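Standup notes
- DV: blocked on the single-chain target, sequence here:
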Amino acid sequence: MADSIQPNTTLYINNLNDKVNKEEIRSQLFALFATYGRLLDVVATKRPNMRGQAFLVFTDLASATAALRGCDGMIFYEKPMHITYAKSKSYATLRRDDPNFVPPTFAHAVSAKRVREAEESDVRTKREKVADEDGEEMDIDDDDEASPAAPSTSNSMSSQVQPTNKLHCANLPQEVTNGVLAVLFQQYRGFQSAQVKPSAKPNAAGEKVKTAEVTFENAQLAAVAKQMLDGFQLKKGWNMAVTFLP
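- DV (later): unblocked, structure below
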């Protein structure tokens, strides 16, 4: 990492496998780096001069630094990632710091519009959740949205099943693949495989979901991953439930 580049909340990644679909790269980068902190944006384009490159925009410097230190050199799609701080702040960060900020080009305006629409969606969702059934005001936590699946189910199931080297992952959105889940679990020692399949039953909201079986070398290593990822937010409103398989 060049000494002249000042630490900031945006990370620059290169040496990515450019043979992998752009959307798959974005989703897997999000799944991996969201474990370090809240992400504002993941930017990867098909432009020839941006092949094999991406930008990750975190909300805070501590998360960006932890992600850089934890993932620089990590094998991602059979190639080691090269990660540095970006040379300048991202447009998403500049707009968050200054709501009146206007990107200088149309391309950047499109990116800012995507961030703005996501922020407006957050506001609408919060407004819809301002009261519970008794009309009392509810606490709203940006980083821990309620999941369609009841978390108590995971706790009750895990208390009845003895720890094993196999984990069951429930409440996975449709875009989750074997590769996405592998990127998330392979950061924990002993990971062997992840097999994703459609669930026969929809979730409480009536949406189609997927489930998965994740295998580790032994029960102790599986328990570490379970403790860290049970309840992990794969995307807004989707918290993964992780239990031991008998």
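- Follow-up: The chain has seven helices and twelve strands.
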